[in-house]
Amino acid sequence: MSNTSQNMGKTTGFKEFDRQVEAYRDPIVRLADFNEIYTEHQESHLQTQGSRCMDCGVPFCQSSNSADTAPQVSYGCPLFNLIPEWNDLVYRGQWRDALVRLHKTNNFPEFTGRVCPSPCEGACVLGVTESPVIIKNIECAIVDRGFAEGWIRPDPPEVRTGKSVAIIGSGPTGLAAAQQLNRAGHSVTVYERADRIGGLLMYGIPNMKLGKDIVDRRVDLLAKEGIEFIVNADVGNDINVNDLVADNDAVLFATGATEPRELRIPGREGAGVHYAMEFLHPNTRSLLDSNLSDGEYISAKDKDVIVIGGGDTGTDCIGTSLRHGCKSLVNFELLPRPPEDRPEDSPWPIGLPRIYRIDYGHAEAAERYGDDPRIFSIMSKEFIRDGNNVLKGVITVNVDENFQEIPGTEKTWRADLILLSMGFIGPEHYASDPVSIHYDERSNYQATRDNYKTNVAKIYAAGDCRSGQSLVVRAINEGREAAREIDRELAAADQ
After folding, report:
1. Do 182 and 289 have their domain in common?
2. Which of 19, 300, 394, 471 has the fewest CB atoms found within 10 Å of its own CB?
3. Rounded distance, CA 188 to CA 436, Å?
Protein backbone atom coordinates (compact mmCIF):
# COMPACT_ATOMS: atom_id res chain seq x y z
CA MET A 1 0.00 0.00 0.00
CA SER A 2 0.96 3.63 -0.15
CA ASN A 3 1.66 3.54 3.55
CA THR A 4 2.24 0.08 4.92
CA SER A 5 1.75 1.24 8.51
CA GLN A 6 -1.92 2.02 8.00
CA ASN A 7 -4.96 0.60 6.35
CA MET A 8 -6.59 2.07 3.32
CA GLY A 9 -7.90 5.53 3.94
CA LYS A 10 -11.61 4.69 3.90
CA THR A 11 -12.10 1.17 5.14
CA THR A 12 -15.89 1.51 5.00
CA GLY A 13 -16.03 3.25 1.63
CA PHE A 14 -17.48 0.22 -0.14
CA LYS A 15 -20.38 0.28 2.33
CA GLU A 16 -21.03 4.01 2.05
CA PHE A 17 -20.81 4.67 -1.68
CA ASP A 18 -22.34 3.09 -4.75
CA ARG A 19 -20.46 2.48 -7.96
CA GLN A 20 -20.77 5.39 -10.37
CA VAL A 21 -18.80 5.23 -13.60
CA GLU A 22 -17.71 8.31 -15.49
CA ALA A 23 -20.38 9.06 -18.05
CA TYR A 24 -19.81 9.11 -21.80
CA ARG A 25 -20.84 12.16 -23.78
CA ASP A 26 -24.49 12.21 -24.83
CA PRO A 27 -24.97 9.83 -27.79
CA ILE A 28 -26.71 12.38 -30.00
CA VAL A 29 -23.95 14.93 -29.39
CA ARG A 30 -21.03 12.58 -29.93
CA LEU A 31 -22.50 11.09 -33.11
CA ALA A 32 -21.84 14.44 -34.77
CA ASP A 33 -18.06 14.03 -34.51
CA PHE A 34 -15.18 11.59 -34.17
CA ASN A 35 -13.92 13.06 -30.90
CA GLU A 36 -13.44 10.83 -27.89
CA ILE A 37 -16.66 9.70 -26.26
CA TYR A 38 -15.43 10.37 -22.72
CA THR A 39 -16.30 13.23 -20.38
CA GLU A 40 -13.81 15.12 -18.22
CA HIS A 41 -12.51 13.50 -15.05
CA GLN A 42 -13.91 14.80 -11.77
CA GLU A 43 -11.32 14.58 -9.00
CA SER A 44 -13.71 14.47 -6.05
CA HIS A 45 -15.84 11.80 -7.71
CA LEU A 46 -12.82 9.62 -8.42
CA GLN A 47 -11.52 10.00 -4.88
CA THR A 48 -14.86 8.81 -3.59
CA GLN A 49 -14.87 5.88 -5.99
CA GLY A 50 -11.28 5.00 -5.05
CA SER A 51 -12.40 4.78 -1.42
CA ARG A 52 -14.62 1.81 -2.36
CA CYS A 53 -11.51 -0.37 -2.74
CA MET A 54 -11.77 -2.88 0.10
CA ASP A 55 -8.14 -3.47 1.07
CA CYS A 56 -8.97 -7.15 0.57
CA GLY A 57 -6.52 -9.80 1.67
CA VAL A 58 -6.06 -11.24 -1.81
CA PRO A 59 -6.56 -8.59 -4.54
CA PHE A 60 -7.75 -10.75 -7.43
CA CYS A 61 -8.06 -7.59 -9.52
CA GLN A 62 -4.29 -7.49 -9.96
CA SER A 63 -3.80 -11.25 -10.26
CA SER A 64 -3.89 -12.91 -13.64
CA ASN A 65 -3.49 -16.31 -15.23
CA SER A 66 -1.28 -17.30 -18.09
CA ALA A 67 -2.96 -16.88 -21.45
CA ASP A 68 -0.91 -19.87 -22.59
CA THR A 69 -2.23 -22.24 -19.94
CA ALA A 70 -5.81 -20.99 -19.86
CA PRO A 71 -6.52 -18.88 -22.93
CA GLN A 72 -10.28 -19.26 -22.57
CA VAL A 73 -10.48 -17.38 -19.26
CA SER A 74 -9.03 -14.28 -17.72
CA TYR A 75 -8.95 -13.58 -14.02
CA GLY A 76 -7.54 -10.16 -13.26
CA CYS A 77 -5.15 -7.66 -14.78
CA PRO A 78 -2.68 -9.29 -17.20
CA LEU A 79 -0.19 -6.56 -16.26
CA PHE A 80 -0.52 -7.25 -12.54
CA ASN A 81 -1.21 -3.56 -11.98
CA LEU A 82 -0.91 -2.48 -8.33
CA ILE A 83 -4.57 -1.53 -8.29
CA PRO A 84 -5.34 -1.30 -4.57
CA GLU A 85 -2.27 0.84 -4.06
CA TRP A 86 -3.17 3.48 -6.59
CA ASN A 87 -6.86 3.38 -5.62
CA ASP A 88 -5.78 4.27 -2.08
CA LEU A 89 -3.43 7.00 -3.27
CA VAL A 90 -6.18 8.59 -5.39
CA TYR A 91 -8.51 8.52 -2.40
CA ARG A 92 -5.84 10.36 -0.39
CA GLY A 93 -5.30 12.89 -3.17
CA GLN A 94 -1.76 11.67 -3.83
CA TRP A 95 -2.09 11.62 -7.59
CA ARG A 96 1.59 11.82 -8.48
CA ASP A 97 2.42 8.88 -6.24
CA ALA A 98 -0.47 7.00 -7.85
CA LEU A 99 1.09 7.66 -11.26
CA VAL A 100 4.42 6.21 -10.09
CA ARG A 101 2.64 3.03 -8.96
CA LEU A 102 0.72 2.82 -12.20
CA HIS A 103 3.78 3.19 -14.41
CA LYS A 104 5.63 0.48 -12.48
CA THR A 105 3.63 -2.16 -14.33
CA ASN A 106 1.94 -0.41 -17.25
CA ASN A 107 3.83 1.50 -19.91
CA PHE A 108 0.71 2.98 -21.47
CA PRO A 109 -2.20 3.38 -19.04
CA GLU A 110 -3.67 6.09 -21.25
CA PHE A 111 -4.38 3.31 -23.78
CA THR A 112 -5.68 0.64 -21.42
CA GLY A 113 -7.65 3.23 -19.45
CA ARG A 114 -9.63 3.87 -22.64
CA VAL A 115 -9.89 0.58 -24.52
CA CYS A 116 -9.37 -2.25 -22.02
CA PRO A 117 -12.53 -4.31 -21.22
CA SER A 118 -11.38 -4.34 -17.59
CA PRO A 119 -10.95 -7.96 -16.47
CA CYS A 120 -9.70 -6.38 -13.24
CA GLU A 121 -13.20 -5.14 -12.48
CA GLY A 122 -14.71 -8.55 -13.17
CA ALA A 123 -12.26 -10.05 -10.67
CA CYS A 124 -12.79 -7.35 -8.00
CA VAL A 125 -13.63 -8.94 -4.63
CA LEU A 126 -16.29 -6.30 -4.02
CA GLY A 127 -18.01 -7.58 -7.15
CA VAL A 128 -18.94 -10.82 -5.39
CA THR A 129 -21.77 -9.04 -3.56
CA GLU A 130 -21.77 -5.46 -4.87
CA SER A 131 -20.78 -3.55 -8.00
CA PRO A 132 -16.98 -3.51 -8.45
CA VAL A 133 -14.68 -0.53 -8.14
CA ILE A 134 -14.40 1.69 -11.26
CA ILE A 135 -10.76 0.70 -11.73
CA LYS A 136 -10.57 1.61 -15.42
CA ASN A 137 -11.85 5.17 -14.91
CA ILE A 138 -9.40 5.78 -12.07
CA GLU A 139 -6.48 4.41 -14.09
CA CYS A 140 -7.27 6.71 -17.01
CA ALA A 141 -7.65 9.72 -14.74
CA ILE A 142 -4.28 9.12 -13.09
CA VAL A 143 -2.31 9.09 -16.33
CA ASP A 144 -4.33 11.91 -17.93
CA ARG A 145 -3.55 14.07 -14.92
CA GLY A 146 0.10 13.03 -15.13
CA PHE A 147 0.34 14.40 -18.66
CA ALA A 148 -1.68 17.52 -17.81
CA GLU A 149 0.56 18.33 -14.84
CA GLY A 150 3.78 17.70 -16.76
CA TRP A 151 4.79 14.80 -14.53
CA ILE A 152 5.40 12.48 -17.48
CA ARG A 153 8.64 13.45 -19.20
CA PRO A 154 11.20 11.71 -21.41
CA ASP A 155 13.55 9.50 -19.40
CA PRO A 156 16.35 8.32 -21.69
CA PRO A 157 18.90 5.81 -20.38
CA GLU A 158 22.11 7.22 -18.99
CA VAL A 159 24.29 4.51 -20.53
CA ARG A 160 24.04 2.61 -23.82
CA THR A 161 25.01 -1.06 -24.00
CA GLY A 162 26.15 -1.08 -27.59
CA LYS A 163 23.52 -3.69 -28.43
CA SER A 164 20.77 -3.09 -31.01
CA VAL A 165 17.29 -4.55 -31.34
CA ALA A 166 14.91 -4.34 -34.30
CA ILE A 167 11.19 -4.54 -33.57
CA ILE A 168 8.74 -5.31 -36.38
CA GLY A 169 5.40 -3.74 -35.61
CA SER A 170 4.50 -0.64 -33.61
CA GLY A 171 1.34 -1.78 -31.86
CA PRO A 172 1.08 -2.08 -28.06
CA THR A 173 3.44 -5.07 -27.92
CA GLY A 174 6.10 -3.45 -30.06
CA LEU A 175 5.92 -0.12 -28.24
CA ALA A 176 6.05 -1.70 -24.79
CA ALA A 177 9.03 -3.86 -25.75
CA ALA A 178 10.74 -0.87 -27.32
CA GLN A 179 10.41 1.25 -24.20
CA GLN A 180 11.63 -1.51 -21.89
CA LEU A 181 14.63 -2.38 -24.06
CA ASN A 182 15.51 1.26 -24.50
CA ARG A 183 15.37 1.74 -20.75
CA ALA A 184 17.87 -1.12 -20.45
CA GLY A 185 20.24 0.88 -22.63
CA HIS A 186 19.88 -0.99 -25.92
CA SER A 187 19.47 0.87 -29.21
CA VAL A 188 15.97 0.13 -30.50
CA THR A 189 14.52 0.65 -33.96
CA VAL A 190 10.82 0.05 -34.60
CA TYR A 191 9.66 -0.74 -38.14
CA GLU A 192 6.04 0.01 -39.09
CA ARG A 193 4.54 -0.72 -42.48
CA ALA A 194 1.88 1.98 -42.19
CA ASP A 195 2.49 5.70 -42.54
CA ARG A 196 2.00 6.39 -38.82
CA ILE A 197 3.27 4.71 -35.68
CA GLY A 198 0.84 2.88 -33.42
CA GLY A 199 -0.36 -0.21 -35.27
CA LEU A 200 -3.72 -1.28 -33.88
CA LEU A 201 -3.74 1.78 -31.61
CA MET A 202 -3.50 4.12 -34.59
CA TYR A 203 -5.57 2.55 -37.33
CA GLY A 204 -7.41 -0.38 -35.74
CA ILE A 205 -9.22 1.53 -32.98
CA PRO A 206 -11.30 4.55 -34.05
CA ASN A 207 -10.72 8.08 -32.80
CA MET A 208 -13.85 8.18 -30.67
CA LYS A 209 -12.48 5.40 -28.50
CA LEU A 210 -8.80 6.36 -28.61
CA GLY A 211 -7.85 9.81 -29.86
CA LYS A 212 -4.77 9.76 -32.09
CA ASP A 213 -3.34 12.75 -30.27
CA ILE A 214 -3.15 10.41 -27.27
CA VAL A 215 -1.14 7.90 -29.31
CA ASP A 216 1.11 10.55 -30.86
CA ARG A 217 1.79 12.06 -27.45
CA ARG A 218 3.23 8.80 -26.15
CA VAL A 219 5.12 8.02 -29.36
CA ASP A 220 6.73 11.48 -29.28
CA LEU A 221 7.83 10.78 -25.73
CA LEU A 222 9.36 7.44 -26.72
CA ALA A 223 11.22 9.09 -29.59
CA LYS A 224 12.66 11.68 -27.19
CA GLU A 225 13.87 8.81 -25.02
CA GLY A 226 15.95 7.58 -27.95
CA ILE A 227 13.80 5.02 -29.78
CA GLU A 228 14.01 5.26 -33.57
CA PHE A 229 10.77 4.85 -35.52
CA ILE A 230 10.67 4.09 -39.23
CA VAL A 231 7.30 4.27 -41.01
CA ASN A 232 6.37 2.98 -44.46
CA ALA A 233 8.80 0.16 -43.70
CA ASP A 234 7.09 -3.03 -44.80
CA VAL A 235 9.32 -5.88 -43.64
CA GLY A 236 8.90 -8.71 -46.11
CA ASN A 237 8.38 -6.35 -49.03
CA ASP A 238 10.48 -3.21 -48.63
CA ILE A 239 12.90 -4.70 -46.09
CA ASN A 240 14.25 -8.25 -45.89
CA VAL A 241 14.13 -9.72 -42.40
CA ASN A 242 17.50 -11.39 -43.01
CA ASP A 243 19.06 -7.95 -43.20
CA LEU A 244 17.54 -7.02 -39.84
CA VAL A 245 18.89 -10.21 -38.30
CA ALA A 246 22.35 -9.55 -39.70
CA ASP A 247 22.41 -5.92 -38.56
CA ASN A 248 21.02 -6.36 -35.04
CA ASP A 249 21.65 -8.40 -31.91
CA ALA A 250 17.98 -9.37 -31.68
CA VAL A 251 14.81 -9.07 -33.74
CA LEU A 252 11.33 -9.10 -32.22
CA PHE A 253 8.24 -9.90 -34.26
CA ALA A 254 5.33 -7.90 -32.82
CA THR A 255 3.18 -7.80 -35.93
CA GLY A 256 -0.13 -8.67 -34.32
CA ALA A 257 -2.82 -11.02 -35.59
CA THR A 258 -3.93 -9.28 -38.77
CA GLU A 259 -5.22 -12.13 -40.96
CA PRO A 260 -9.01 -11.76 -40.83
CA ARG A 261 -11.42 -14.67 -40.50
CA GLU A 262 -13.23 -15.20 -43.78
CA LEU A 263 -16.92 -15.89 -44.42
CA ARG A 264 -17.02 -18.28 -47.34
CA ILE A 265 -20.59 -18.24 -48.55
CA PRO A 266 -22.05 -17.70 -52.04
CA GLY A 267 -21.87 -14.13 -53.29
CA ARG A 268 -18.74 -13.25 -51.30
CA GLU A 269 -16.77 -12.00 -54.29
CA GLY A 270 -17.51 -8.49 -55.44
CA ALA A 271 -17.92 -4.99 -54.14
CA GLY A 272 -19.86 -4.14 -51.00
CA VAL A 273 -18.52 -6.83 -48.66
CA HIS A 274 -15.41 -5.79 -46.72
CA TYR A 275 -13.34 -6.90 -43.79
CA ALA A 276 -13.75 -4.61 -40.79
CA MET A 277 -10.21 -3.30 -41.03
CA GLU A 278 -10.68 -2.45 -44.71
CA PHE A 279 -13.36 -0.11 -43.42
CA LEU A 280 -11.77 1.22 -40.21
CA HIS A 281 -8.16 1.76 -41.34
CA PRO A 282 -8.85 4.06 -44.32
CA ASN A 283 -11.49 5.95 -42.34
CA THR A 284 -9.00 6.92 -39.65
CA ARG A 285 -6.30 7.73 -42.18
CA SER A 286 -8.64 9.95 -44.17
CA LEU A 287 -9.89 11.58 -40.98
CA LEU A 288 -6.34 12.44 -39.94
CA ASP A 289 -5.20 13.49 -43.41
CA SER A 290 -8.17 15.54 -44.54
CA ASN A 291 -11.06 15.32 -42.06
CA LEU A 292 -12.65 12.84 -44.53
CA SER A 293 -12.63 15.39 -47.36
CA ASP A 294 -10.33 13.34 -49.62
CA GLY A 295 -12.89 10.54 -50.03
CA GLU A 296 -10.18 7.90 -49.56
CA TYR A 297 -12.32 5.62 -47.43
CA ILE A 298 -15.38 3.36 -47.63
CA SER A 299 -18.39 5.49 -46.79
CA ALA A 300 -21.52 4.16 -45.09
CA LYS A 301 -23.49 7.33 -45.82
CA ASP A 302 -27.10 6.61 -46.82
CA LYS A 303 -26.42 2.88 -46.94
CA ASP A 304 -28.12 -0.08 -45.33
CA VAL A 305 -25.25 -1.50 -43.29
CA ILE A 306 -24.93 -4.96 -41.79
CA VAL A 307 -22.06 -5.80 -39.46
CA ILE A 308 -21.41 -9.53 -39.16
CA GLY A 309 -19.71 -10.41 -35.91
CA GLY A 310 -19.74 -8.85 -32.48
CA GLY A 311 -16.88 -7.88 -30.22
CA ASP A 312 -15.07 -4.58 -29.95
CA THR A 313 -14.25 -4.35 -33.65
CA GLY A 314 -17.88 -4.91 -34.60
CA THR A 315 -18.89 -2.13 -32.23
CA ASP A 316 -16.30 0.15 -33.83
CA CYS A 317 -17.81 -0.58 -37.24
CA ILE A 318 -21.21 0.34 -35.84
CA GLY A 319 -19.98 3.61 -34.35
CA THR A 320 -18.14 4.59 -37.53
CA SER A 321 -21.09 3.76 -39.80
CA LEU A 322 -23.41 5.85 -37.65
CA ARG A 323 -21.06 8.81 -37.84
CA HIS A 324 -21.00 8.50 -41.63
CA GLY A 325 -24.80 8.75 -41.64
CA CYS A 326 -25.87 5.24 -42.63
CA LYS A 327 -29.55 4.69 -43.51
CA SER A 328 -29.97 1.59 -41.32
CA LEU A 329 -27.75 -0.69 -39.29
CA VAL A 330 -28.00 -4.28 -38.09
CA ASN A 331 -25.40 -6.38 -36.26
CA PHE A 332 -25.44 -10.19 -36.66
CA GLU A 333 -24.02 -12.37 -33.92
CA LEU A 334 -23.77 -16.16 -34.34
CA LEU A 335 -23.64 -16.77 -30.60
CA PRO A 336 -26.78 -16.68 -28.44
CA ARG A 337 -27.67 -13.58 -26.44
CA PRO A 338 -25.58 -13.63 -23.26
CA PRO A 339 -27.29 -13.65 -19.88
CA GLU A 340 -27.72 -10.44 -17.92
CA ASP A 341 -25.91 -11.88 -14.89
CA ARG A 342 -22.74 -13.92 -14.53
CA PRO A 343 -23.43 -17.51 -15.71
CA GLU A 344 -22.48 -20.60 -13.71
CA ASP A 345 -19.72 -21.49 -16.17
CA SER A 346 -18.03 -18.11 -15.57
CA PRO A 347 -17.81 -17.87 -11.78
CA TRP A 348 -15.98 -15.10 -9.98
CA PRO A 349 -13.05 -14.29 -10.21
CA ILE A 350 -13.14 -14.82 -13.97
CA GLY A 351 -12.61 -11.27 -15.15
CA LEU A 352 -14.46 -11.33 -18.46
CA PRO A 353 -17.58 -13.45 -18.04
CA ARG A 354 -19.77 -13.59 -21.12
CA ILE A 355 -22.66 -11.38 -20.06
CA TYR A 356 -24.88 -8.99 -21.95
CA ARG A 357 -23.13 -5.64 -22.27
CA ILE A 358 -24.14 -2.45 -24.03
CA ASP A 359 -21.09 -0.75 -25.52
CA TYR A 360 -20.88 2.76 -26.89
CA GLY A 361 -21.86 1.78 -30.46
CA HIS A 362 -24.90 -0.18 -29.34
CA ALA A 363 -26.11 2.77 -27.27
CA GLU A 364 -25.60 5.12 -30.22
CA ALA A 365 -27.54 2.86 -32.58
CA ALA A 366 -30.37 2.57 -30.07
CA GLU A 367 -30.45 6.35 -29.79
CA ARG A 368 -30.55 6.75 -33.57
CA TYR A 369 -32.91 3.90 -34.48
CA GLY A 370 -34.68 3.01 -31.24
CA ASP A 371 -33.24 -0.46 -30.60
CA ASP A 372 -30.04 -2.33 -29.86
CA PRO A 373 -28.79 -3.29 -33.36
CA ARG A 374 -27.70 -6.80 -32.38
CA ILE A 375 -29.48 -9.94 -33.51
CA PHE A 376 -28.21 -13.10 -31.85
CA SER A 377 -28.18 -16.74 -32.94
CA ILE A 378 -28.21 -15.86 -36.62
CA MET A 379 -26.10 -17.28 -39.46
CA SER A 380 -25.43 -15.72 -42.85
CA LYS A 381 -26.05 -18.11 -45.72
CA GLU A 382 -25.66 -16.13 -48.96
CA PHE A 383 -24.86 -12.63 -50.14
CA ILE A 384 -27.42 -11.47 -52.71
CA ARG A 385 -26.20 -9.77 -55.87
CA ASP A 386 -27.96 -8.58 -59.00
CA GLY A 387 -27.00 -9.34 -62.58
CA ASN A 388 -24.27 -6.69 -62.42
CA ASN A 389 -22.79 -8.25 -59.26
CA VAL A 390 -24.02 -5.32 -57.15
CA LEU A 391 -24.63 -6.22 -53.52
CA LYS A 392 -28.32 -6.17 -52.60
CA GLY A 393 -28.49 -8.02 -49.29
CA VAL A 394 -27.92 -11.25 -47.41
CA ILE A 395 -29.94 -14.37 -46.63
CA THR A 396 -29.81 -15.62 -43.04
CA VAL A 397 -31.14 -18.46 -40.92
CA ASN A 398 -31.57 -18.68 -37.16
CA VAL A 399 -29.56 -21.30 -35.27
CA ASP A 400 -30.05 -23.15 -31.99
CA GLU A 401 -27.62 -23.39 -29.06
CA ASN A 402 -25.64 -26.03 -31.01
CA PHE A 403 -25.45 -23.76 -34.07
CA GLN A 404 -27.80 -25.99 -36.02
CA GLU A 405 -30.07 -24.26 -38.49
CA ILE A 406 -33.71 -23.89 -37.48
CA PRO A 407 -35.99 -24.76 -40.41
CA GLY A 408 -38.38 -22.07 -41.52
CA THR A 409 -36.33 -19.16 -40.15
CA GLU A 410 -34.75 -18.03 -43.40
CA LYS A 411 -34.88 -14.28 -43.95
CA THR A 412 -33.62 -11.83 -46.54
CA TRP A 413 -32.06 -8.58 -45.39
CA ARG A 414 -31.35 -5.57 -47.56
CA ALA A 415 -27.77 -4.29 -47.48
CA ASP A 416 -25.57 -1.97 -49.53
CA LEU A 417 -22.54 -2.47 -47.28
CA ILE A 418 -21.62 -5.56 -45.26
CA LEU A 419 -18.70 -5.50 -42.85
CA LEU A 420 -17.07 -8.73 -41.69
CA SER A 421 -15.96 -8.48 -38.08
CA MET A 422 -15.40 -12.07 -37.04
CA GLY A 423 -11.95 -11.81 -35.53
CA PHE A 424 -8.50 -12.74 -36.75
CA ILE A 425 -6.95 -16.15 -37.30
CA GLY A 426 -3.30 -15.21 -36.88
CA PRO A 427 -0.42 -13.16 -38.27
CA GLU A 428 0.42 -12.58 -41.88
CA HIS A 429 3.52 -14.61 -42.70
CA TYR A 430 5.11 -12.81 -45.58
CA ALA A 431 7.54 -10.95 -43.33
CA SER A 432 8.79 -14.14 -41.71
CA ASP A 433 8.82 -16.41 -44.77
CA PRO A 434 12.50 -15.77 -45.60
CA VAL A 435 13.63 -17.11 -42.20
CA SER A 436 11.14 -19.98 -41.85
CA ILE A 437 9.86 -19.35 -38.34
CA HIS A 438 7.85 -22.28 -37.03
CA TYR A 439 4.13 -21.87 -36.44
CA ASP A 440 1.84 -23.46 -33.90
CA GLU A 441 -1.39 -25.29 -34.80
CA ARG A 442 -3.21 -21.94 -35.08
CA SER A 443 -0.59 -20.46 -37.46
CA ASN A 444 0.86 -18.18 -34.76
CA TYR A 445 4.60 -17.83 -34.35
CA GLN A 446 5.83 -20.62 -32.11
CA ALA A 447 7.51 -19.19 -29.04
CA THR A 448 6.86 -19.90 -25.38
CA ARG A 449 6.50 -17.37 -22.59
CA ASP A 450 9.58 -18.88 -20.97
CA ASN A 451 11.83 -16.88 -23.28
CA TYR A 452 9.78 -15.76 -26.33
CA LYS A 453 12.40 -17.32 -28.62
CA THR A 454 11.43 -18.70 -32.00
CA ASN A 455 13.26 -21.57 -33.68
CA VAL A 456 15.47 -19.04 -35.47
CA ALA A 457 18.50 -17.66 -33.68
CA LYS A 458 18.19 -14.00 -32.56
CA ILE A 459 14.47 -13.87 -33.47
CA TYR A 460 11.73 -13.51 -30.86
CA ALA A 461 7.94 -13.19 -31.09
CA ALA A 462 5.41 -11.63 -28.73
CA GLY A 463 1.86 -10.36 -28.61
CA ASP A 464 -1.02 -11.43 -30.81
CA CYS A 465 1.29 -12.84 -33.50
CA ARG A 466 2.50 -15.33 -30.87
CA SER A 467 -0.53 -15.97 -28.68
CA GLY A 468 -3.46 -15.14 -30.97
CA GLN A 469 -5.95 -12.29 -30.99
CA SER A 470 -6.30 -10.86 -27.51
CA LEU A 471 -6.46 -7.65 -25.48
CA VAL A 472 -4.30 -4.53 -25.65
CA VAL A 473 -3.43 -5.06 -21.99
CA ARG A 474 -2.13 -8.57 -22.72
CA ALA A 475 -0.17 -7.23 -25.68
CA ILE A 476 1.58 -4.70 -23.46
CA ASN A 477 2.40 -7.41 -20.93
CA GLU A 478 3.90 -9.67 -23.57
CA GLY A 479 5.97 -6.80 -24.92
CA ARG A 480 7.34 -6.18 -21.44
CA GLU A 481 8.08 -9.85 -20.83
CA ALA A 482 9.73 -10.34 -24.21
CA ALA A 483 11.90 -7.30 -23.60
CA ARG A 484 13.01 -8.74 -20.27
CA GLU A 485 14.02 -12.03 -21.92
CA ILE A 486 15.83 -10.30 -24.79
CA ASP A 487 17.70 -8.12 -22.31
CA ARG A 488 18.71 -11.18 -20.27
CA GLU A 489 19.96 -12.91 -23.40
CA LEU A 490 21.96 -9.89 -24.53
CA ALA A 491 23.44 -9.43 -21.08
CA ALA A 492 24.42 -13.09 -20.89
CA ALA A 493 26.21 -12.84 -24.24
CA ASP A 494 28.65 -10.35 -22.68
CA GLN A 495 29.56 -12.61 -19.78
Report:
1. no
2. 19
3. 24
